[in-house]
Specification:
The chain has 257 residues and is α/β, with parallel strands linked by helices. The protein has nine helices and six strands; from the N terminus they run H-H-H-H-E-E-H-E-H-E-H-E-H-H-E. Keywords: Signal.
Length: 257
């Protein structure tokens, strides 16, 4: 693991990403206005989605390589649902000898080209299907055969911070997993350090507006309250008292009846 920065560096670090995202939003907006005229101003969600696609195709893979993420992804096996794959940063990390089928559930259509390119490169084209929707869109998932108790694993890497309603998303995840199925996750949420929570609250308006996720969610509670798990005591919370993005991580197993 990389050395932990001090408090001031930890507070300032997210603002670099905020500024980068502001620049990308402006770039996308200018391109859209040049292409479509003032009508582009009436499509703010498209601007946000396109800017997010540019932001998340940067150095995230290299950063995740020095975290627990690669080993977490390799715990996925059988029929897997990947929540919010974004540009497909996890595709190369799957153990292809263990994965039967992967469904990438992603509401942002601007990531499709990046995912397609990585599927071709890493030989998962015949086993990975991108579905442009949210996990709450049960009718769409049902058409793909994703129903209650149908999944061996759900992979969730930095997603619950960004969805509209993490409580409902987690309840749906628990419903779709088979008894004994795995919820594999690496997320961030509220800090347990009081001074850090103040910094999170101050930074969250700009962070959530431009980066697109939230610094102030109780993700741990949302995960634990979604249903019964066999091993909640195995959730890991690395000691990161100054970080505005403190992690929780682990592999939870859905309790068998």
């Amino acid at each position: 693991m990389p050395p932990q920065p001090g408090r001031l560096a930890s507070i300032l670090r997210p603002w670099g990403l905020i500024w980068l995202s502001i620049c990308l939003h402006w770039e996308v907006l200018v391109q859209a206005v040049r292409r479509d005229g003032l009508a582009a101003l009436g499509r703010p969600q498209q601007i946000r989605d396109a800017a997010a696609a540019k932001l998340l195709t940067g150095g995230f893979i290299a950063y995740e390589d020095i975290t627990i993420v690669p080993s977490l992804v390799q715990a996925a096996r059988g029929i897997v649902l990947e929540l919010g794959p974004g540009p497909g940063n996890q595709i190369h990390r799957y153990d292809t000898s263990l994965v039967k089928r992967v469904y990438g559930v992603e509401p942002n259509p601007y990531f499709k080209d990046d995912i397609d390119a990585k599927l071709d490169k890493h030989g998962l084209r015949d086993r990975y299907k991108l579905i442009i929707c949210g996990v709450e869109d049960s009718d769409v998932l049902r058409q793909e055969g994703i129903t209650e108790g149908s999944l061996d694993a759900v992979l969730c890497i930095q997603v619950l911070c960004a969805v509209k309603d993490p409580k409902n998303v987690m309840k749906e995840v628990w419903r779709l997993l088979k008894p004994g199925g795995k919820f594999i996750f690496w997320e961030h949420g509220w800090s347990r350090n009081r001074l850090t929570t103040v910094a999170q609250a101050c930074s969250n308006p700009a962070w959530s507006t431009f980066v697109g996720c939230h610094l102030t969610r109780n993700v741990l509670a949302d995960v634990l309250n979604s249903g019964e798990w066999e091993n909640p005591h195995e959730i890991e919370e690395p000691d990161e008292p100054f970080s505005l993005l403190p992690r929780i991580q682990g592999v939870l197993v859905k309790k068998k009846a």
